[in-house]
Specification:
The complex is a heterodimer of chains A (about 290) and B (about 375). Chain A folds into three domains: about 5-75 and about 115-190, P-loop containing nucleotide triphosphate hydrolases (Rossmann fold); about 80-110, no CATH class; about 195-280. Chain A is built from 15 helices and nine strands. Chain A has helices spanning about 5-15, 20-35, 45-60, 75, 80-95, 100-105, 115-120, 140-150, 180-185, 195-205, 215-225, 235-250, 255-265, 270-280, 285; strands at about 35-40, 60-65, 80, 110-115, 125-130, 150-155, 160, 170-175, 190. Chain A has a five-stranded parallel sheet, sandwiched between helices. Chain A is elongated, with a radius of gyration of 24 Å. The model of chain A has no long low-confidence stretch (mean pLDDT about 85). Chain B has about 375 residues and is of the alpha/beta class. Chain B folds into three domains: about 1-130; about 145-160 and about 205-370, 3-Layer(aba) Sandwich (Rossmann fold); about 165-200, no CATH class. Helix content of chain B is about 45%, strand content about 10%. In chain B, helix 1 packs across helix 2 (about 15-30), helix 7 (about 145-155) packs across helix 9 and helix 7 packs parallel to helix 14. The relative contact order of chain B is 0.09. Mean pLDDT of chain B is about 75; it is low at about 90-140. The chains are: A alpha/beta (about 290), B alpha/beta (about 375).
């Protein structure tokens, strides 16, 4: 394995994130090639967490832009401080100052940085997470293109801002709609699936060190069993860790019907799924 | 291609053979529906100079992140990579020689096992012919019909409920548009004499179309694929699926191939039978995030189900709780003497908000005129 990739994998592990070689290679290339990373995969497999961990191991700021329908330039890129502009304009007019208001109030003094602009101007270059980009409108994707390709934002009144040092950009998507080809082509792509049994055991062991090995394996097997049951909200890695933590806090020695019944809310998030699992029988979980 | 060669040679110490292999990889992937070209090849060459190319596993990981754009491609990429490069450990060697090393691939690993492996890969490659795929989607429909379907589909979309967007547009009695107000105030010495306001826009309707393409629906498959294509070209957020024994999301295929249809090999996993309950259940669980209260789910099927009725009942129960409206389009409904008494149809009917007969252009126009998709 490339020495740098191996080093990055070790650093991720020290930050309590278990990444396989494929994922580490993409993260390494993202840094080397200066490309954004587009991560898709089921909810709760650690997409958002990875961005946080990358910021942690690089020792830089973590900036997050949560996407939603209706997200626009004023919330993602920049906005003007309108009350301040208005006050300035009135002061100038009433004080008869000799200033050209129309240009003076469109300076950096009146500029409000939103996450994307902040990511460009921060030094050292931060890690920028554009979370759940599929929730935003197609128009917002178009807005991102200049940013992702050039690491540049153009403000009509001032000019273009280009990052001195490009930030590391991680985009995540849960595939509620198809993203445009233009956006995909600008990114390195990763499909982050549920981890294998051994990797999931390793992750839980790392996150909940006080839990007995046999209990960790039981929890992992039970969660994997539930993922095969076509639940409305299949449990992700986050739910596995929550469940393991709950088992540890309750000082459970062995998984049985009672302990599962008490803690099932950590794993299942809808009433329909609860009913379904009870119908199947909890014994299937603790004996799995 | 010349540009590619020049640039790639500037990037690093890659051999001519490697560059050649990477160059031919994009056209090879395009045969399998990947939308890749020279930019991806350039990025791949740049990436190769940043990693250890002796490790084919690492090369595969790097190339996968560059060439792949969706989960389906992610899944098949390793086998395509293996086919193209005939993966053998240490097949590639980093070298300063730029040309005349075309024998590099054969050298250094000439064991009997290796050569037989390459022969197998070669045989697999020859066995594949992308032109053999059956194309049945929109090819048979005439140009005039296509235009008419598009016209009436656009009219149909106007009937669907449009949820309120969080985007704003101009209008009275709504929040102040500060940006515009301030800009205008500058003309009046800073006095905001005109207050501009904005209101929330109506968002595009969310529509999910699920079409049965089992054997019994084959006579109608072209027409409904055309309708699905037309929906994708309207002002609506549309997702399209086809199903028989499995369900498959075809939105990217339809928007990409437009009127040429969908190649058979893209639907290879869908067999001849019908498992409506299973497929709808898959839809609810795998694509649950597409199904919201504002979503209208259109199921196009004759209701002949070979699966267990309980499964269909359970799936319909789940779907009716997730989406705002379910419209079931049955092409047999207009036939004389037809009664929806088939087990699948009678199980699903209690959960259906609208039961509509559409089987050709005329019936589609009729359904739109009768505003069958309105609340």
């Amino acid at each position: 394995m490339n020495e740098h990739i191996h080093k990055l994998q070790e650093e991720l592990r020290r930050a309590r994130y278990v990444a396989d070689q494929a994922l580490t290679t993409v993260l390494y290339l993202a840094g080397r090639l200066g490309r954004p990373v587009l991560m898709e995969g089921p909810a709760g497999v650690g997409k958002t967490e990875l961005a946080k961990v990358m910021a942690q191991i690089r020792g830089v700021d973590f900036i997050r832009l949560q996407c939603y329908e209706g997200l626009d330039a004023a919330h993602a890129l920049y906005d003007w401080d309108y009350p301040k502009q208005l006050l300035t304009a009135r002061t100038v007019i009433e004080g008869h100052e000799q200033r050209k208001i129309s240009t003076d109030i469109y300076t950096e003094e009146y500029l409000i940085e939103r996450p994307l602009l902040k990511a460009l101007r921060s030094q050292p270059a931060p890690v920028l997470l554009i979370d759940e980009v599929d929730r935003a409108d197609e128009e917002f994707e178009a807005l991102l293109l200049e940013f992702l390709a050039e690491f540049q934002i153009t403000i009509p009144e001032i000019g273009s801002f280009r990052a001195q040092q490009p930030p590391m950009v991680i985009l995540t998507s849960n595939r509620t709609r198809d993203l445009s080809d233009a956006l995909r082509r600008r990114c390195l792509y990763v499909w982050l699936d549920y981890p294998s049994l051994e990797r999931e055991v390793e992750i839980i062991r790392m996150r909940v060190p006080g839990l007995a090995e046999e209990l960790i394996r039981q929890i992992t097997r039970a969660v994997r069993q539930m993922r095969q049951w076509s639940l409305l909200k299949p449990p992700g890695m986050a739910e596995s860790i929550d469940w393991a933590q709950a088992i540890e806090k309750l000082d459970v020695r062995e998984l049985d019907e009672e302990s599962i019944s008490l803690t099932l809310g950590c794993v299942l998030k809808t009433q329909e799924d609860m009913e379904f699992v009870y119908q199947k029988g909890l014994a299937l979980l603790w004996k799995s | 291609m010349e540009v590619l060669e020049v640039l790639s040679r500037q990037i690093g110490l890659l051999s001519g053979r490697i560059i050649e292999q990477v160059q031919s990889f994009a056209p090879f992937l395009r045969q399998y529906g990947f939308r890749v070209g020279t930019p991806e090849s350039l990025t791949a060459i740049e990436a190769l100079s940043a990693i250890e190319i002796e490790s084919m596993e690492q090369v595969m990981d790097a190339m996968r992140s560059i060439y792949v754009k969706n989960p389906a491609e992610w899944a098949i990429f390793p086998s395509l990579f293996k086919r193209h490069f005939g993966v053998v450990q240490h097949e590639w060697k980093q070298t300063t020689v730029l040309e005349g090393d075309t024998e590099l691939q054969q050298s250094g690993s000439g064991s009997a096992e290796t050569s037989s492996s390459l022969q197998i890969e070669g045989a697999m490659l020859r066995a594949y012919n992308p032109n053999h795929g059956q194309r049945y989607a929109l090819r048979v429909l005439k140009e005039g019909q296509l235009q008419q379907i598009l016209y009436w589909t656009r009219k149909a979309v106007l009937q669907f409920e449009s949820p309120r967007s969080r985007r704003l547009e101009k209008g009275r009695r709504f929040p102040i548009d500060f940006r515009r107000t301030i800009r205008h105030a500058m003309k009046n010495g800073g006095d905001p004499l005109v207050i501009y306001k904005r209101k929330y826009r109506r968002a595009r309707p969310r529509i999910v179309i699920v079409t049965d393409i089992s054997g019994s629906m084959k006579p109608h498959a072209d027409f409904f694929t055309t309708v699905a294509w037309a929906f994708l070209h309207t002002r609506a957020r549309v997702e399209t699926f086809v199903f028989s024994t499995e369900i498959k999301r075809i939105t990217p295929l339809l928007s990409r191939h437009i009127v040429h249809g969908i190649p058979f090999e893209q639907l290879i996993e869908l067999k001849g039978g019908t498992r409506i309950g299973f497929c709808l259940s898959r839809l609810a669980h795998r694509y649950g995030s597409l199904l919201r209260k504002q979503t209208c789910l259109i199921i196009v099927s004759d209701g002949y189900d070979t699966g267990h009725p309980h499964m269909l009942k359970r799936a319909m129960d789940t779907l009716s709780g997730l989406v705002g409206k379910i419209v079931w389009v049955n092409p047999l409904l207009g036939e004389e003497g037809y009664e929806p008494v088939a087990t699948g149809m009678s199980t699903a009917l209690p959960y259906v908000d609208r039961f509509v007969d559409v089987h050709d252009l005329e019936s589609w126009i009729q359904a739109v005129k009768l505003t069958l998709f309105a609340n």
